[in-house]
Amino acid sequence: MSVSTAQPLDPRRWQVLAFLALAQLMVVLDGTIVNVALPSAQRDLGISDANRQWIVTAYALAFGGLLLFGGRIADRWGRRRAFVIGLVGFAGSSALGGASVDTGMLIGARALQGAFGAVLAPAALSLLTVLFTQPRERTKAFGIYSAISGGGAAVGLILGGLLTEYADWRWTLYVNVFFAAIAVAGAVFVIKEPAGGGNRNRLDVPGIVLAGAGLASLVYGFSKAESDGWSSPTTLGCLIGSVVLLALFVLVQARGKAPLLPLRVVTDRNRGGAYLALGLAVVAMFGALLFVTLYLQIVLGYSPIKSGLAFLPMVVGMMGGSTQVAVRLLPKVPPRFLMVPGALIAAAATLVLTRISVGGSYWAVVLPALLVFGLGMGLVFMPAMNLATRDVQPKDAGVASAMVSTSQQVGGAIGTSLLSTVANSAAARYAASHAADAHSRAAGTQLRLAAMVHGFSIAFWVAAALLAASACVAATLVDAGPQSRPDGRADPAGDSARTGDRPLTSP
């Protein structure tokens, strides 16, 4: 049965989408907005170089480690309630961070932000999942939502540059209070709790502990690889520990009566393929964004605000790819027909970025590459996020949505650390092999910049390979049909018949 005929549609669902999108933007941009302000915060609070990484890592650890728990909270206690709790908590911890008087206070506030973000993000996406059930409307809604999810990182760079340059670094945190206040008003006056679909099973405490510890250990291990190297005892211990903990988590989920993550959510071929393809694409995207930012500011000498505005073409491309191209084609073609070309287009744009040089031009290389990169990522994000929550049982909508956020959050942490290590190693080798050519201070400066650019170029090659791998995953695993027929009606053979779950209206 088509979900559109089984339960009435919320007449205010498009208004709800606006508030959900605003909340998602707040969570996503917070991963990068503070990065721009970090040097100013470090000077103001006297943060040591050793503790500086914790401003970013604390947020990522709490967010990545608690996402599955946050998704199950939404399923168990109500999506609207979890959405409001996440918003209020995120706003409060942001205000606490903005008022920080020392390093510990700021790090603690960032950890709290991540914890409440882990409740907020899956609650927002699961609300979207259960509110938009008609195929064509769902396609449009996910097009908008995925464009914001993908472009939010670039928006964070732009907004962070504006606030840091014209206000104060503290406003990169205070601004969340305004975003959250608007979204809370929407939740109170517009959003209603969707009927049915609750999961009142007891909480899977062993699963919560194992998933949280395993994901946090994975994120921390990759963050330490960037600073300490892959062979350091801390890095190896965390990565090995994460593998063991996550393996135990899978074992517990397979045998548990009320698992935190029912394995049917991820073992479905299409959803599993969407999670993996999206995660690989995010690894490449976050790494590429980092190196373009460093190239613009360190090599080309752009100010924070100018470098942030330089990412506007990527946002434009991603909006176009998600809301124009993918929205029009997804009802007519299988998702992989968008995801595979999208990943390959983004990979080609990343290869263009390997052409950067010390005396290079933003207009000739970076701008067209960012525009095309955004277009390709829009074609990946929109169908992947749609497919990852398609036909999931209502009682699992929160945890399925949490898996999308987990792919993004863990992928971003891995991408930044993995590609930074690649770039730093390549730069060191280049500098060592050309050291004999640096006979003066000016020559030494040029060598340093040349080595840095060489390292960035190698990292872009790796990012392109990861995007190619994402295309291969989509081509191999994703076999779902179009979401709807050309007449706009749901196509059961293309949807629920291909999955192991029942449609959203199943009890």
From TrEMBL:
Key word Cell membrane present: yes
Topology versus the membrane: Multi-pass membrane protein
InterPro entries in the cross-refs: EmrB-like, MFS, MFS_dom, MFS_trans_sf, Sugar_transporter_CS
This protein's UniProt keywords: Antibiotic resistance, Cell membrane, Membrane, Transmembrane, Transmembrane helix, Transport
Stretches that traverse the bilayer: 16-38, 53-70, 82-99, 111-132, 144-163, 169-191, 203-222, 234-252, 273-298, 310-330, 337-356, 362-385, 458-478
Record-linked SUPFAM superfamilies: MFS general substrate transporter
Pfam annotation, one family: MFS_1
Domain of life: Bacteria
Location of this chain's protein in the cell: Cell membrane
Domain Major facilitator superfamily (MFS) profile: residue ranges: 16-482
PROSITE patterns: MFS, SUGAR_TRANSPORT_1
Region (Disordered): 480-507
Protein name: MFS transporter
